[in-house]
Design a protein that fits this description.
By secondary structure, this protein is α+β, with helices and mostly antiparallel strands. The protein contains 3 helices and 11 strands; from the N terminus they run E-H-E-H-E-E-E-E-E-E-H-E-E-E. The protein has helices at 14-20, 60-69, 171-204, and strands at residues 7-9, 39-49, 79-83, 93-100, 103-119, 123-132, 138-149, 154-165, 216-217, 220-223, 237-240. Strands 1, 2, 3, 4, 5, 6, 7, 8, 9, 10 and 11 form an 11-stranded mixed β-sheet that branches. Residues 36-194 form the DUF1990 domain. InterPro entries: DUF1990.
């Protein structure tokens, strides 16, 4: 049995790694979040327009909410997820697989907030947020929201986050994070917006925006639905819980 933080060659039992997330806690406190050591971002993307007023049935807002709930906007070449679709959204554990040039990093997150409200009397908002768990490459929270401005009819996808690299990264991983982490992070947000806009537009044309049902591993599913394994994946190097401190077997971050 592998320990958290191990480098693994060959096949990885992702379902076993996902099960361990139940014992992991969030790896930061909101009291720690402050610039300039933390990145604080907000990314807004227009998805379409409806008539002013409440969201329309099967309109851009509803289509986007459906896709965001299932994590279909995530670009599979950068980040994939394994989760239990039968579990309530709030409290759901997700094992993220971050892919970078033949290296796959497996990090846990937990959905800690679901947003379903009318904000500032005009914006109809639905979405959710996950926070990073012990062993993650990063520390922080990402919130994904679909917003309809009911006065104008504009529908937006809004991603807001606060994050920093985990202070427990080993020297090699930390160097890679400092060189490539922020660039990859911003590329991820850009690709999320591009995919969601494309899928919403396809759905409004009456097309099925995704090629097939999600792949399954027992009762768990991989997201997004267009996630595919490639022959070269067999040669990938896997790193489970890369944010664990050296020698840790529990993934807990020292206090």
């Amino acid at each position: 049995m592998t320990s958290l933080g191990d480098w693994i060659f060959g096949r990885l039992d992702a379902v076993r790694v996902w099960r361990r997330l139940a014992d992991a806690g969030v790896n930061y406190s909101v009291d720690e979040v402050r610039r300039p050591s933390w990145n604080v971002d907000v990314h807004r993307t227009a998805l379409g327009k409806e008539r002013p007023g409440p969201p329309e049935s099967e309109g851009p807002w509803e289509q986007a909410c459906r896709l965001v709930r299932a994590y279909e906007f995530s670009p599979p070449e950068i980040v994939r997820a394994l989760y239990d679709p039968a579990a309530p959204l709030l409290g759901r554990d997700m094992l993220l697989e971050a892919r970078f040039h033949g290296m796959h990093f497996y990090c846990g997150v937990r959905v800690t907030k679901v947003v379903d409200e009318t904000r500032d009397k005009t914006d109809r908002v639905w979405g959710w947020a996950y926070e990073t768990l012990q062993g993650h490459l990063e520390r922080g929270q990402v919130t994904y929201e679909v917003v309809k401005r009911q006065d104008s009819g504009e529908v937006l996808f809004v991603v807001s986050c606060h994050s920093q690299g985990a202070p427990t990264l080993d020297r090699i991983t930390l160097l890679g994070w400092r060189v490539f982490g922020r660039r990859t992070q911003l590329r991820f947000y850009r690709r999320c917006a591009e995919r969601l806009r494309r899928f919403v537009e396809a759905a409004l044309r009456g097309e099925h925006p995704l090629p097939s049902p999600p792949s399954a591993a027992g009762h768990l599913v991989f997201a997004p639905s267009d996630t595919r394994m490639h022959r070269l994946d067999a040669l990938a190097i896997h790193r489970v819980a890369p944010g664990c401190s050296p020698g840790s077997s529990t993934g807990r971050v020292p206090k």
